[in-house]
Amino acid sequence: MEKTSLPVAVIGAGPVGLAAAAHLLERGLEPLVFEAGPTAGAAIEEWRHIRLFSPWRFNIDAAAVRLLEASGWEAPRPTALPYGGELIDNYLAPLAALPALASRLETGARVLAVTRQGMDKTHVRNRDTTPFIVRVLHSDGETRDHTVAAVIDASGTWSTRNPLGTSGLPAIGEEAAAARISSPLPDVAGRDREAFAGKRVLVVGAGHSAANTLLNLAALAKEAPETRILWAIRGASPSKTYGGGDADGLPARGQLGARLRRLVEAGKIELHTGFGISSFKSLDSGVTVGAVDGRTLEADVVVPCTGFRPDLDMLRELRLNLDPAVEAPMELGPLIDPEFHSCGTVPPHGARLLAHPDKDFYIVGMKSYGRAPTFLLATGYEQVRSVAAALAGDREAADTVQLELPETGVCSTDAGTSCDVPATRPAAGAGEAGGESGCCAAPEPVLVAFPPAWPTAAPPTTDT
Ligand SMILES: Cc1cc2nc3c(=O)[nH]c(=O)nc-3n(C[C@H](O)[C@H](O)[C@H](O)COP(=O)(O)OP(=O)(O)OC[C@H]3O[C@@H](n4cnc5c(N)ncnc54)[C@H](O)[C@@H]3O)c2cc1C
């Protein structure tokens, strides 16, 4: 079969994968979308209780909107800030249900590996013109190989959180204690309440998701007073998480941090600083979490707010060019490295910057940022517009990157994590941790340094 008549595989039906499919269709190319989860937006489904910090206007893709509008869809108010659940219900689900996409989307289809047909990574001859093989575990339990002309990996990073152990490795016993470790952003005061009410909960991490989880746990503890909240951070001080309090130049950060500080000072949250985790010991009654310096903490459940990393295993047979630190495409890495960019200024970029030695293979979306936490959907939408143009042979359009992004992105104190999230949906009966005036009760946008022309539902603030 001619390589050009083959479809283009898209891995993942998150917002960026679906946008990629929409752009490919506009370009006359045939997308074949494999989604591991049961529905489009499966990763966001797990944080549907979290409010996005960017307004609708920047959360929807232009080609996807063109498809949707042709079916009578009405765009949400552009300045409103949706919850993750609303992003799915009002945008991703209707998009995935359009016949043009539904017929090209397979859910319950997990991509296991990508390679070139008939050659491993070491073979170079005719490599560029040889189709790719995408190996997929389908929902019927069968594993099948699919031959495609190109591959766009939009599989995100949600399923590969960073380990809790120090040194980038799981702590000894961490895997065996998996039943005691929650998802990275549990809805502690809502959907997942039962797993947390009245329990000893250890939150690990110093970013915004840790802060928000702690505040919601404090709200939960008001209703279920036996709930004990422990907080372990690797650093010597939580000052970065607290921000500048009332004097903080970024009000939402200051407010969130001030509330957290008050709870810690009041003894409602038990803070353990300098707690680099070295071991987990599972017991019938819970788990003992050991620190490098010999201290131990007992918990029933541990919430890992330690960020995410890309799954590169399935790309092992491809020739990639990744930044050695961030694991983003080589040229993108230095632009987003959280060690140097707490408020990353990310120039617009497209196919050229995202290219790898294996021609016609691209990593896009959240995964394209590797371990860096500052990815924005609008960035991903421009990436896939450019990639689709490149795959269609329209080099000029591919190279004309027109990112309508702020010069500065999302700020983060969570170097190396993706846990920088805004406030969660208010907990019922939220008081100190989730009262009317706090971030948990009235989530605010946490965009930073958007140009004044950008409409936001509230004054721009930052996500530390
Ligand atoms: C809590 C939170 C809040 C955020 N808020 C914002 C915000 O306000 N504004 C903003 O611009 N960005 C925000 N982001 C960052 C980012 O835009 C989102 O993470 C977004 O979901 C990334 O989209 P994506 O399509 O790249 O990846 P995902 O949404 O993670 O989608 C990837 C898809 O691939 C599937 N998949 C994974 N592995 C495989 C496989 N092997 N085979 C097949 N399918 C697979 C997954 O099931 C998933 O459906 C936020 C992130 C988080 C975690």
UniProtKB/TrEMBL annotation:
GO molecular function: flavin adenine dinucleotide binding; monooxygenase activity
FAD/NAD(P)-binding domain boundaries: 8-323
Coiled-coil annotated residue ranges, if any: none
Keyword Oxidoreductase: yes
Protein name: Thioredoxin reductase
Keyword flag Oxidoreductase: yes
InterPro entries given in the database record: Auxin_biosynth/cation_transpt, FAD/NAD-bd_sf, FAD/NAD-binding_dom
Transmembrane segments: none
Lineage, top ranks: Bacteria, Bacillati, Actinomycetota, Actinomycetes, Micrococcales
UniProt entry keywords in alphabetical sequence: Oxidoreductase
